[in-house]
Amino acid sequence: MKFTEIDILGVYVAPMSLILIAAWICTLALRRVAIHFGLLRYVWHPALFGFAVYMIVLSSIVLIAAR
Fold first, then answer.
1. Hey, which residues does 8 pair with through a beta bridge?
2. pTM of the model as a whole
3. What is the pLDDT of residue 10?
């Protein structure tokens, strides 16, 4: 994938911004699963854990898209 601007309704958008939104949506889904099963009880700092999961998801999507 080439990281070139994407035209959305006449507005050029950086592909990284779309990847950021996709990673946020995936992280929200993973957070809901963790809340449903009670996994966040075992985490020392839930907000820090959520940020770490977001960074892992974001970097995974970027690595997959860069192939």
1. 11
2. 0.85
3. 87
